[in-house]
Write a sequence for this structure.
């Protein structure tokens, strides 16, 4: 069995915002609340990036029209004891997807990690 670091991309819809920065803040906050409520605080959340087709510059993954924004979020999770990359992706998508509900998720990458599970600290008596 192998350990993987899986990066998922999700599309988050935010309504009634005035700027792209507000939309990013709301999207990260809402996603974090949903993950934390399911005790998935170990999942890292950040804004995705997109490349401008005209100039090639990297831009925040936000598309905003009429006070409604679609924010591309990245979710990073470590998956332990998976059979292969596809198995790690299915585990990650299932775990994160249950917490986020109807948010569409797709695989960005799955990288094999060195080492095993982190050791739990011993409890003092």
């Amino acid at each position: 069995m192998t350990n993987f670091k899986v990066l998922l991309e999700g599309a988050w819809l935010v309504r009634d915002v005035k700027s792209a920065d507000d939309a990013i803040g709301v999207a990260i906050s809402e996603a974090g609340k949903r993950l934390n409520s399911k005790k998935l605080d170990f999942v890292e959340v950040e804004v995705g990036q997109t490349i401008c087709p005209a100039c090639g510059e990297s831009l925040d993954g936000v598309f905003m029209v009429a006070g409604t924004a679609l924010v591309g979020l990245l979710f990073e999770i470590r998956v332990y004891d998976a059979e292969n990359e596809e198995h790690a992706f299915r585990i990650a998508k299932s775990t994160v997807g249950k917490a986020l509900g109807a948010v569409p998720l797709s695989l960005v990458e799955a990288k094999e990690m060195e080492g095993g599970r982190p050791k739990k600290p011993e409890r003092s008596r």
Q: What stands out?
A: The two ends are 34 Å apart (CA to CA). The mean pLDDT is 89. The longest helix spans residues 20-37.
